[in-house]
Design brief:
Blueprint (H helix, E strand, L loop, with lengths): L1 H9 L16 H8 L15 H9 E4 L1 H9 L6 E5 L13 E7 L3
Parallel strand pairs: 1-3
Antiparallel strand pairs: 2-3
Helix pairs in contact: 2-3
């Protein structure tokens, strides 16, 4: 699985929690799952269109070029990095986060 491959390569991913009900889930289901997380940092790996819609819904601030690219397409293996000014994941809200980076593979 993708998460295990990333963990093996980085050696620093932490605990992996699989949530099968999120496979091809709509953005609302993915956001609800995020709001139940207790860790400080979070890596969400999911499929389009849900993960693209989630990234678009979270982004409010950041580099204008990256925000424009985010709105246009989201290739497989794209990585969005956000700064979410929250104390707890339950507080995350759409359109209230900074897109720090958007890494789109060739």
């Amino acid at each position: 699985m993708t998460a295990q491959a990333i963990k093996d390569a980085s050696g620093n991913l932490g605990t992996i929690e699989y949530q099968d009900h999120l496979y091809n889930a709509p953005v609302g289901d993915i956001l609800n799952a995020i709001q139940t997380c207790g860790s400080e940092n979070l890596l969400v790996i999911a499929h389009n269109p849900g993960i693209h819609m989630l990234a678009r819904s979270l982004a409010d601030k950041g580099d204008k070029v990256k925000l424009e690219k985010l709105n246009i397409f989201y290739n497989p293996a794209t990585l969005s990095i956000f700064d979410c000014d929250i104390e707890n994941w339950r507080d995350i809200q759409p359109q209230n986060n900074t897109l720090l980076d958007l890494i789109i593979p060739d």
